[in-house]
Amino acid sequence: FCQLRAAQGVLARCGPMLQSVDSFSASCASRRSGRRVVPVS
């Protein structure tokens, strides 16, 4: 699943920065769009 893969990649890099499921969904959408995951505070 995209969410699982995105979650693994995000946790491996950002870990504590992105823990919410929304972040995983956002990262999944970002990867589909071809953009990198950019945490917005």
Tell me about this structure.
The longest helix is centred in the middle third of the chain and has 13 residues. It is built from two helices and no strands. Helix 1 packs across helix 2. With 41 residues, it is mostly helical. The N and C termini lie far apart (26 Å). The model has no long low-confidence stretch (mean pLDDT 60). The chain has one domain.
What is the overall number of helices?
2
- Which structural class matches the secondary elements? mainly alpha
Q: What does the main sheet amount to?
A: none
Mean pLDDT: 60
Number of domains: 1
Q: How much helix is in the residues? A: 55-70%
The outline comes out as globular
Low-confidence stretches: none
Total beta strand runs: 0
Write the layout of secondary structure elements.
Blueprint: H1 2-13, H2 21-33
Helix pairs in contact: 1-2
Task: Provide a compact summary of the structure.
With about 40 residues, this protein is mainly α.
